[in-house]
């Protein structure tokens, strides 16, 4: 009987079996109760991290499909370079490493990622190597000019016998310590790695120090963490070894194998998890990804208590159109093989499991396993398969989208708005948000310069005065949130605050209905003429009064909710989901193909999120000042040299933070008030870590930023003269005219330069 997994294997496919696991039992993944993330309800203040974790199985392993450890594109096709090795043999270039990294770039482009956490990759160059390439070098070439930076930490192969690696405490981002990558196709150090669309300013690695040199078949790995300029969230990549089924050979007799006890295996595993837990607890916000080598999720329970794991819930409805399964497959393994004498596959079973995970302290807005990128190629050597895929020819051709025996898991953390327009008359009135959309009035006659409520857009009811973006701000078939401040004129008729165009009707409309004097959040049931719409209706709209309106749609539950001044006033059900792919618009809607319901009055601070804010987030977003976020960059400098060092415990990392450019550096903070008309500033606290001396105290006159902004913006304070060579810590909070203030930000750290 032919047994192989066909290429239709996809997310949500039923697992045929589950491989590996701690305790020696096949334990199916089952959704655990996981921390939802964002306990303070302020994730909307930080940028979203769009991250993937992926074990690339990039180093060593078998050369044909049935050989132990085989993985596609470890070597690839060889091209003679015309150069010679010292022994006279030719030097070849291999396309495998680049092919693997092309898969990473494809994932980045398809899913708009800004971070990738990698395991089993090669980084840097092995000293003295005359040939080969490294995965990170190839990835850097493919992403050149796009603003990406990279960090790595070496992993020790068990048969190297080198002993534990020392911890690196300098600014080296590509770590050359660890085992050298094997084979002519590769050079560099076997590593875990982090790639970020941004500037990595700091990294740390904490080694697991599991035994090496004893013949254990799994490496002694590490947890690598990095900080990115302007990001509140840190990133960590790890690879946990599972020693349960391994055997080691006594040093005095290489042929004698002794099984490791269950107790020893569990102790090794638990120690690694403990180090991971202790490390991530030091960061106020963190995204952690890696290969944890177990599908028994109870083993990872300390992490589930601390953070959200992205694939423990569905983010889309399972309605036949969208099918968002939980605990999706991340590992493909061929078992129960029947082989020819030359090692070619006659038959096999494909087993699947989940052993790769993505965690975050901030919660997620979506998650998926890109199972199509796993190697489910038909390697059978019959006429319909690959007759040369055996030990004599070793010509095994992976499918076009097969890059690893692991599949990537990617998720988006909760974060700031995709669109954020102040509409305050400033030069940036219609710019802002992660989607990069800019708005413009159709006829250019909108009055951008009204001073109302700290600066607002006034519209006189004409639909041509609407402000339109260059495209959609979100997918109306998925979850989203829209929000705006609005003030109706006394004679205003039905007026649309915002919408997003379909072909014949807007896909979403936040509007005032003059017929019954109500605010409404409406979602039409189809892109068709007429008025077939699900509406959340909040009666009692007050003209001439500034009102904060927020509409939230959760596609997983089908609920559409309308909040007025932060309080939920109405809810309805909307299940007829469709995509309105036209422009996001402020000041009118679209009905039966006709622009309609021009707004009459003032509109201010329009924002849109590509996920559903929770009720407590809407309340916080609408009514309380936000604590300053990780965009509080103390200083900037060359990659790998400076860092804001925003961690909970400076001693954990030996104060390995950046050095200020002067003895009077300027500290910066991004502050925000829910009311755009209010003045807001920052108060700074600064202390000397070296002596324990408090220099600036929150609430004192000297702690106030030298600048004040209206509504939101960046403020700063130049600190008093510092002592050369000392280490300093600082934090900040937001304050306003009403003597309100927020909780403080995370502690940040830096060093003063030497005299």
Describe this structure in a few short sentences.
The protein has 755 residues and is mainly beta. It is 8% helix and 33% strand.
Topology:
Elements: E1 50-55, E2 78-84, E3 90-94, H1 96-111, E4 115-123, H2 135-142, E5 148-154, E6 189-197, E7 200-207, E8 222-228, E9 234-239, E10 247-249, E11 257-259, H3 262-280, E12 286-291, H4 301-306, E13 308-309, E14 331-339, E15 345-353, E16 356-360, E17 364-369, E18 409-413, E19 419-421, E20 440-441, E21 447-450, E22 456-460, E23 467-468, E24 480-488, E25 495-501, E26 506-513, E27 518-524, E28 533-539, E29 547-554, E30 559-564, E31 567-573, E32 584-586, E33 589-591, E34 594-596, E35 600-609, H5 615-623, E36 666-672, E37 679-688, E38 694-696, E39 709-710, E40 712-718, E41 727-736, E42 748-751
Parallel strand pairs: 1-4, 9-12
Antiparallel strand pairs: 1-18, 2-3, 4-6, 5-6, 7-8, 8-9, 10-11, 12-16, 13-16, 14-15, 17-18, 19-35, 20-23, 21-22, 22-35, 23-32, 24-29, 24-35, 25-26, 25-32, 26-27, 27-28, 29-30, 30-31, 33-34, 36-40, 37-38, 37-39, 37-41, 41-42
Helix pairs in contact: 1-2
Classification by helices and strands: mainly beta
CATH architecture title of the largest domain: 4-Layer Sandwich
The percent of residues in helical segments reads under 10%
**Between the first and last Cα atoms, what is the distance in angstroms?**
77 Å
Number of helices: 5
The CATH topology of the largest domain turns out to be Deoxyribonuclease I, Chain A
Determine the strand fraction and express it as a percent band. Answer: 25-35%
Q: How many discrete structural domains?
A: 3
The rough form would be described as globular
Give the overall average pLDDT: 86
Q: Summarize the main sheet.
A: 8 strands, antiparallel
Rg (CA only): 28 Å
In terms of quaternary structure, the protein is: single chain
CATH class of the largest domain: Alpha Beta
Q: Could you give me the name of the CATH homologous superfamily of the largest domain?
A: Endonuclease/exonuclease/phosphatase
The stretches of 5 or more residues where confidence is low (pLDDT under 50) are: 1-28, 245-257, 634-642
């Amino acid at each position: 009987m032919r047994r192989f997994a066909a290429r239709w294997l996809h997310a949500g496919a039923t697992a045929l079996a589950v491989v590996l696991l701690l305790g020696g039992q096949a334990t199916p993944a089952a959704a655990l109760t996981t921390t939802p993330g964002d306990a303070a309800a302020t994730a909307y203040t930080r940028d979203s991290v769009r991250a993937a974790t992926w074990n690339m199985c990039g180093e060593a392993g078998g050369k044909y499909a049935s050989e132990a450890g085989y993985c596609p594109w470890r070597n690839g096709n060889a091209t003679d370079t015309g150069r010679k090795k010292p022994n006279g043999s030719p030097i070849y270039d291999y396309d495998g490493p680049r092919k693997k990294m092309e898969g990473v770039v494809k994932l980045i482009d398809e899913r708009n990622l800004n971070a990738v956490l990698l395991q089993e990759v090669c980084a840097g160059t092995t000293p003295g190597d005359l040939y080969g390439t490294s995965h990170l070098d190839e990835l850097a070439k493919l992403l050149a000019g796009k603003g990406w930076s990279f960090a790595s930490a070496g992993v020790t192969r068990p048969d190297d016998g080198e002993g534990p690696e020392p911890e690196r405490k300098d600014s080296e981002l590509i770590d050359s310590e660890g085992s050298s990558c094997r084979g002519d196709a590769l050079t560099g150090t076997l590593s875990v790695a982090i790639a970020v669309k941004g500037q990595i300013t700091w990294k740390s690695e904490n080694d697991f120090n599991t035994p090496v040199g004893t013949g254990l078949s799994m490496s002694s790995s590490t947890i690598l963490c990095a900080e990115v300029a302007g990001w509140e969230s840190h990133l960590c990549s790890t690879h946990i070894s599972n020693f349960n089924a391994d055997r080691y050979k006594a040093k005095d007799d290489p042929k004698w194998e002794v099984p490791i006890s269950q107790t020893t295996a569990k102790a090794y595993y638990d120690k690694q998890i403990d180090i991971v837990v202790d490390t991530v607890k030091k960061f106020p916000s963190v995204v952690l990804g890696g290969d944890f080598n177990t599908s028994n999720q109870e083993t990872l329970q300390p992490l589930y208590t601390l953070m959200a794991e992205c694939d423990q819930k569905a983010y889309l409805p399972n309605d036949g159109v969208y099918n968002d399964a939980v605990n999706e497959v991340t590992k493909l393994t061929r078992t129960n093989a029947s082989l020819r004498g030359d090692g070619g596959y006659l038959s096999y079973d494909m087993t699947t499991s989940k052993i790769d995970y993505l965690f975050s302290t901030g919660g997620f807005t979506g998650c998926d396993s890109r199972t199509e990128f796993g190697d489910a190629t038909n390697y059978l050597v019959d006429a319909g398969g690959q007759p040369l895929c055996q030990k004599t020819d070793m010509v095994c051709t992976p499918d076009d989208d097969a890059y690893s025996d692991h599949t990537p898991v990617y998720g988006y953390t909760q974060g700031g708005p995709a669109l954020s327009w102040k509409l305050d008359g400033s030069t940036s009135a219609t710019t802002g948000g992660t989607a990069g959309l800019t708005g413009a009035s159709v006829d250019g006659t909108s009055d951008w310069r009204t001073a109302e409520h700290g600066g607002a857009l006034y519209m006189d009811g004409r639909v041509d005065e609407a402000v339109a973006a260059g495209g959609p701000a979100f997918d109306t078939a998925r979850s989203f949130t829209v929000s705006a401040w609005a003030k109706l004129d006394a004679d205003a008729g039905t007026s649309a605050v915002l919408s997003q165009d379909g072909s014949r009707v807007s896909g979403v409309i936040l509007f005032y209905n003059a017929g019954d004097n109500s605010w409404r959040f409406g979602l039409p049931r189809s892109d068709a003429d007429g008025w077939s719409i699900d509406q959340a209706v909040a009666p009692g709209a007050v003209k001439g009064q500034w009102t904060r309106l927020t509409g939230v749609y959760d596609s997983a539950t089908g609920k559409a909710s309308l909040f007025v001044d932060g309080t939920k006033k109405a809810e309805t059900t909307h299940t007829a989901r469709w995509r309105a792919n036209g422009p996001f618009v402020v000041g009118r809607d679209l009905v039966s193909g006709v622009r309609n319901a021009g707004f009459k009055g003032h509109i201010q601070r329009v924002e849109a999120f590509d996920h559903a804010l929770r009720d407590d987030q809407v309340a916080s977003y609408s009514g309380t000042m936000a604590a300053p976020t990780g965009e509080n960059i103390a200083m900037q400098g060359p990659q790998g040299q400076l860092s804001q060092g925003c961690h909970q415990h400076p001693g954990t990392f030996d104060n390995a933070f950046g050095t200020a450019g002067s003895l009077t550096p300027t500290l910066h903070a991004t502050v925000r008030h829910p009311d755009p008309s209010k003045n807001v500033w920052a108060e700074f606290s600064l202390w000397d870590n070296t002596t324990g001396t408090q220099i600036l105290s929150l609430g004192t006159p000297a702690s106030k930023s030298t600048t004040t902004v209206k509504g939101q913006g960046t403020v700063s304070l130049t600190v008093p003269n510092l002592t050369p060579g000392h280490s300093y810590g600082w934090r900040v909070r937001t304050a306003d005219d009403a003597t309100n203030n927020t909780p403080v930000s995370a502690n940040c750290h830096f060093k003063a330069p030497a005299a």
